[in-house]
Amino acid sequence: MTTDFQQAREALGKRLRELRGGQTQRELAAVLEWPQAKVSKLETGRQTATPEDLMAWAKGTGHPATTEELLARLQGLETHTRSWRRQLRAGHRPVQDVLTVEYEQSTTLRAWQGAMVVGMLQTADYARHVFTRYAELQQSPRDIEEAVRARMHRQDLLWEGSRTFHILMWEAALHAGVAPPDVLAAQLDRLATVIGLDTVHLGIVPFGAQVGVPPANGFWLYDERLAIVEEWHAELWLNDADSVALYRRVWETLNQSAVYGTQARRLIARARAHFTDRA
Description:
This protein is an alpha/beta fold. It has helices at about 5-20, 25-30, 35-45, 50-60, 65-80, 85, 90-105, 125-140, 145-155, 170-175, 180-195, 240-255, 260-279, and strands at about 80-85, 110-115, 165-170, 200-205, 220, 225-230, 235-240. It has two domains: about 5-80, 434 Repressor (Amino-terminal Domain) (Orthogonal Bundle), CATH 1.10.260; about 85-279, Endonuclease, Chain A, CATH 3.30.870.
């Protein structure tokens, strides 16, 4: 949980305690027909309230007029945490369109990905398998082909020359079997051709490299204004200066362990040989 997100959740919890007033937690829990533990967790910021929770709280504490205020507080909190369940209600294509806007508004983009090839460098076949896996996991609408087309369209930005992409991947991302061997081999061929583009700086952190921080979850940095961090349950959209600076330091630290150019090509070729043997 990010520090700013947790602080916002605790501030909401404090406001909920104020509205409870003279009621005990047990009394309010009885009115709302909730476990007392839920009341406690909401007030201490250990659980994120839903809109329904807040509407019930406002009514149950005798302050129905505060409903809009509480929902506004929740919306402010949710701008940092965008759950996949909510984002994917209409499928993957709308999510891709929202991200494209952020790419278009940026000139210097940095990425770290340790689990798979980053979306901006994916082939259509590779992206198709990735979207299918996530649709199955999140049980979301299967607009796979529309999502693939949106991702491929965004890759046009690689060729415009007005942006620079600094992309770091762990070597493990080259070996992740998220698609059949022939698709993975073609994807690695694509990566090899990207090295040398004046708009793309692709670094690979090799297996066994000494790293200053553990190679954890993936993220993108959009100039110095926004960090988007990927979690299993949600994306974190962080636009406060401290959080963006933190992720920039993480990126710079991992970059110290990365190899580029010929050395990166060797790692890609090694991974490709592995999948060629299995194809």
